[in-house]
């Protein structure tokens, strides 16, 4: 079986989470704080040139490696084992049912046989893995197994980034799974541990918004919409004649003309709110669900001024910007003020770093 257990293999500490997105690379290192839970040892980010990563694909290896090397130096981490994420669109997942009581070797054979039915590529072109979920409800003779497969070249691109940066790729996860792992910690801190609550996560990235809806730890809906913070940056480029890089920098530090908020930012916020309300309506019409109890915003664009308020007002749903580090101890070197501003962008990296404890 090709590369079984390489896609979601177990983690050995110490381990850092490394999120490679279209806008930049982000690193999170967590440690066990004993009775105090988990401690955030360090987190750092480094921007990527436009086009270095596009549609989840590493297009310019050298640029990404250079950014990761700068990131490692900036963070000061000594860990060399790394958990990486694959974009959801690059991974095929399928729940299958197999007979209970099979040995590991028999499971591998059965998974490979089943995989050929669902994967539109030759098996020697994919990295394949599986995880036993547990017994099938009302059938003690069967087990439910999660099958996951990705094109080998996509996996190898990220492994190559790690190796060229002096790191060892110990875990390869799916970015949406990593985000949900980080979210699970926060839902557990809600009243009643979030039991019975329908929670919607909107990860507003540079080019794409990932939507996941969960109930009692189970994902009941997922969707991806081509909308993100780069749209606002392009609006700034057109309005003020700046380069994309300069517009992005000024967007982040607020160095824009007085009319920016009314003329550029507010129309973008209106569009963002419309995207969210449409996504919610599509969720209602395509599933049996008729309510959402809590909206969480994450991603690099989640902290845009006014975004949370307009979404809460338009949806009439309790809404909050997420911090994946809520409830964690902070190491002395972590700058708390900066963390408050940047935390929503670290959701995936934090979820990857949590694999150290998985």
From TrEMBL:
Q: Which PANTHER family match?
A: CELL DIVISION PROTEIN FTSA-RELATED (PTHR32432), ETHANOLAMINE UTILIZATION PROTEIN EUTJ (PTHR32432:SF3)
High-level lineage:
Bacteria, Pseudomonadati, Pseudomonadota, Betaproteobacteria, Burkholderiales
CDD domains listed in its UniProt record: ASKHA_NBD_PilM
* Signal peptide start-end: none
UniProt name for this protein: Type IV pilus assembly protein PilM
Gene from which this protein is expressed: pilM
Domain of life of the source: Bacteria
* Entry-linked Pfam families: PilM_2
- Give the transmembrane region(s): none
What are the residue boundaries of the SHS2 domain, all occurrences included? 15-183
């Amino acid at each position: 079986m090709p590369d079984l257990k390489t896609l979601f293999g177990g983690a050995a500490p110490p381990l850092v989470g490394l999120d490679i997105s279209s806008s930049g690379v982000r690193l999170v290192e967590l440690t066990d704080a004993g009775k105090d839970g988990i401690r955030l040892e360090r987190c750092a980010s480094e921007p990527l040139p436009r086009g270095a990563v596009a549609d989840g694909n590493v297009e310019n290896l050298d640029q990404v490696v250079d950014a990761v090397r700068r990131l490692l130096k900036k963070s000061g981490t000594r860990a060399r084992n790394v958990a990486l994420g694959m974009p959801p669109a690059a991974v095929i997942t399928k729940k299958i049912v197999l007979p209970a009581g099979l040995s590991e070797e028999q499971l591998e054979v059965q998974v490979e046989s089943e995989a050929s039915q669902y994967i539109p590529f030759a098996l020697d072109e994919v990295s394949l893995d599986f995880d036993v979920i547990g017994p099938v409800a009302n059938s003690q003779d069967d087990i439910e197994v999660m099958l996951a497969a990705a094109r080998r070249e996509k996996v190898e691109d990220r492994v190559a980034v790690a190796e060229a940066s002096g790191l060892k790729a110990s875990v390869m996860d799916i970015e949406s799974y990593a985000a949900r792992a980080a979210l699970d910690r926060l839902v557990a801190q809600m009243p009643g541990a979030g039991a019975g609550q329908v929670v919607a996560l909107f990860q507003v990235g540079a080019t794409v918004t990932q939507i996941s809806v969960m109930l009692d730890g189970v994902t009941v809906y997922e969707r991806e919409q081509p909308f993100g913070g780069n749209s606002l940056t392009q609006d700034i480029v057109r309005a003020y004649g700046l380069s994309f890089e300069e517009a992005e920098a000024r967007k982040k530090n607020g160095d824009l003309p007085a009319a920016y908020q009314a003329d550029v930012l507010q129309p973008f916020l209106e569009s963002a709110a419309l995207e969210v309300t449409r996504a919610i309506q599509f969720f209602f019409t395509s599933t049996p669900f008729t309510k959402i109890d809590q909206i969480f915003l994450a991603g690099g664009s989640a902290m845009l001024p006014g975004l949370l308020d307009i979404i809460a007002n338009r949806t009439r749903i309790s809404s909050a910007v997420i911090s994946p580090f809520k409830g964690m101890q902070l190491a002395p070197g972590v700058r708390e003020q900066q963390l408050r501003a940047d935390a929503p962008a670290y959701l995936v990296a934090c979820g990857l770093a949590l694999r150290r404890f998985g």
